[in-house]
Structure formats: structure tokens, C-alpha cells
Amino acid sequence: MSLAMPNACTEPAPHADFYDEYADDAVHDECGVFGVFAPGEDVARYTYFALQALQHRGQESAGMAVGDGTTVMCVKNLGLVTQVFEETDLNTLKGDLAIGHTRYPCKGEEPNWSSAQPHLSHIGRQLVALAHNGNLVEIDELRARLTEQDIELESHSNSQALATIISAFTQKHNHIRNGMAETMSLIEGAYAVVLMTEEALYAFRDPHGIRPLAIGKLSDNEGLVVASETAAFDIVGAEYLRDVEPGEIIKISRAGLESMQGAEPKRDALCVFEFVYIARPDSVFYGRSIHEVRHRMGEILAAEAPVKADLIMSAPASGTPAAIGYAAGSGVLYGEGLTKNNYVGRTFIEPSQALRRLGVRLKLNPIRSNIAGKRVVLVDDSIVRGTTMKEIVKMLRDAGAAEVHVRISSPPVLWPCFYGVDTDTREQLIAASLSVKEIDEFIGADSLAYISIDGMVEATGRKRDQLCCACFDGDYPVHVSDEVKNSKKGRETWKN
Description:
Elements: E1 2-4, H1 21-24, E2 31-37, H2 43-53, E3 61-67, E4 71-78, H3 81-84, H4 87-92, E5 97-103, E6 119-123, E7 126-136, H5 139-147, H6 158-173, H7 176-186, E8 189-196, E9 201-205, E10 214-218, E11 224-227, H8 231-236, E12 238-243, E13 248-253, E14 256-261, E15 270-271, H9 273-278, E16 284-285, E17 288-289, H10 290-304, E18 311-314, H11 320-330, E19 338-340, H12 353-363, E20 364-366, H13 368-371, E21 375-380, H14 387-398, E22 403-408, H15 436-443, E23 447-450, H16 453-460, E24 467-468, H17 470-473, H18 482-485
Parallel strand pairs: 1-4, 15-24, 18-21, 21-22, 22-23
Antiparallel strand pairs: 2-5, 2-11, 3-4, 3-5, 6-7, 7-8, 8-9, 9-13, 10-11, 10-12, 13-14, 16-17, 19-20
Helix pairs in contact: 6-7, 10-11, 10-16
């Protein structure tokens, strides 16, 4: 067995240096994963293009591992997908299967090459690569249970911990899928994992299905793919087949697709924020178009929180489908009120608070001719800290808006997430300490309203007991202790 890591340099790419105000005041998922098994095809390029489709799920680092039956090669680095991979890398990474990963860091975490995935390790003499989306919880309890079995977790990384546990249990059972199954019986949290050996691709998902993972088939050959979102299938020419079921383990090899139940499925709890914000609007979850769901959220929001207005506009671009839906539901014209500069990266200079405010204006600029003298409804998907919304409202007033009414297509975010989204303390959430009226006063709008939880759930086409709405109602599908819930450190010492 051999391991090659071309271009695995340790210098951080320039974009990852500083989180600006606009980027921080939003909900971010922490990872996107992809896997492909397609002998005879250019699996590295499939992975490269798929990771670009998943770039929105993580911008700190990217990586891929490729297996050719005898060896595994890996390239990973800090930076965007287009910054990490060069043509020479793609020409070098030849094989039958591959996995890839894009990562978003925990809030306040310094860019770190060692956190980039896939993570490489050994199971006995067999080389494996693993990539993970989600977050494990109740780590101290897990460590104690593993110590009883003489398994020590030295790392504070989810992916490395998973690899360590799977390796130990695989050697115990002499069977990798049984090793995964026993791992799943011990760990708690949200996870969608892809793992590869030199010859086979594996994927598994937590028993609640909190983090998404889908299976597709390449249309021009017999290859199979797995991904966090179906948008990755579109770019590589794959047809969506089905989702990996909660608690399911799949194996893809020359024998085809094999499935086993690794852990007993529990109540469905797909993260509702996938529908609200995280997923791309061109993705499909359980047969529901994300764009259509967000459009419907806007329609429901218009019925729940009407207001007299002349123009419905969005905070681009994540709020656009809901804004169009709000316009359709209200009968008021939808139009562009803000232009987004898509070519502004993160700043390299530690700014003053005044320069932080200017950072919002650098990325968003009002179209004064559309706004001046009008009663404007600004639709966005969520308010986390409120700082960016405050600046946008002021910007619209400066552009001459007669009134600014803010409508949000998700309920107030009251509780932190411990399952792979970077809101891990209540101190980060303005709605956890201020009422809607107080938030309205803080952002300076003429009115502020949120969609109801029932309205949001209705738009998804699923039942409330099929979704995780913990960030809105505090009902965590996977138990989280009060100590963890109230911790101000959040996941500071346990990272994806």
C-alpha cells in the first residue's frame, strides 16, 4: 500500500484569512461531501466539478482522495476548490473511485490545514480515506465508553475520531461494514460520511437523517455517486436515485450497490435549515425542489404577515425565492433593490468597526431608482446576529426608501445547533435575548415579522416530526445535555 499527496502544501490560501461582517451574520453549514465509483472514467474531474457545486457548503478548505485498486492519492488544502486543485493534480489523480469534501470552519477557528478533509488512515494494512459532514455530541461520554474497550481518541476532529473508531471495530469484526455498524451504535449526533478503500466506496448516515446524503447514477456509464445535494449530480450528469436512508450503510464496488442497516432508524429529523438556507435552490430533497419550498415559504409569509407596500425585494441571493413567493402571495411587484458584488473576497486587513460596516456596502449596493420614495418589503431567509440587517435597512433608507418592512422566511433562531451548523452558543443569536419588537428597533425597520414554525414546516411538504427544528423550538432529536446547551465555548474543542 502506498500513499501520495501531491500539492498538499501547508500555506493557507489567501481567501481564508478573515471573516467579514457580511459573511459572519448568516447561518453556515460546515461541509459538503461527494463520492463516485466509475471504473474507466475520470473520477478526479467528476469530483472536482461536484465539489464546485457544493462550494456553498464550505469555503475554508477542499480535498479529494482517489483510489485505483492498489493505492490512494490525496490532494487537500486551504482555499476554494478552484484554488486547491491544479490541472497537474487532476492529471495525476487517476483511479476508479474518489471522495471529495468542502469544509466550513467552526466560528472563531483559525484556518488549519490539518482540519482539511478527506482524512487518511489505516485499518490494519488497508489504507482508507474518510470525509464527514455533521457533528458528534456528548464527546466525554463517548470517550469514556471507548476507553472501556481500550480505544483512545487522541484527536479533537470528528473525521479523525470516526476513522479511529471504525478502524478499531473493523479489526475486531474483520469486516468494515460491521465496524461501521458498531461505530454507529456508539456515536451520537448528526453525520453523513463517505469512506473509501482502494477498491470500494462506502457511505452512511445517522439514524435520524439530520444531515442529507443522496445516491445518483451517472447517465453515460454504470457509475454511481453520492453527495450532500443533488445539485452535485446535475453538474456531473448523474440521475438522482434515492436518499441514503437514516442509519443505512451502502457499499459501491464492481459488485454494484449493496446496502445494510447499520443502526436502527429513529424518527426522521432532516435539518429544516437545509430547506430555509443551506441547500442550493436547484437541489431536491425527498422529491421537493428547494426553490419551490422557499417560494412557498414566501407565499405563506405574505399571508401571515401582510403589509402595504410598493415593492417586494430580497437580500440577495438566498432570500430571492422567498421574496418572489411573497410578491406572488401579496400581489405586490417584485423587483431588484440591491445589487450583490459576487467578486469581493474576504478582506486581508483587520478593520475597525466603521470599516466592518463598509464591508456590507462593498458587497451590497442599493438600486436607488427602484427604491426612492417607495414602501419596501425586504425579504430574507434568517436573522442571526442582526448586524448585517441593520446595515441593509440603513442603506435602503439612505437610498430614499419611504418605509422599510423586513420579513423573514424562517422563525426566530432561538437555540444553538450542535449538529453541524456554526451557531453553537446562544450568545450568537439576537433572538435568544431580544423580542421581535426589540429586534425591530435594533435593525431600525418600520416593521419586522417572521414566518411561523407551522408555516415553514408546511412549505417543506414534510411533517414536523420528520424535521429537526431545534434551532427554532429547542427540541433536539439527539439528546444534548444542559451543560453542552449552555456552554459558551460551544464546539471550541471538538471540530468537524
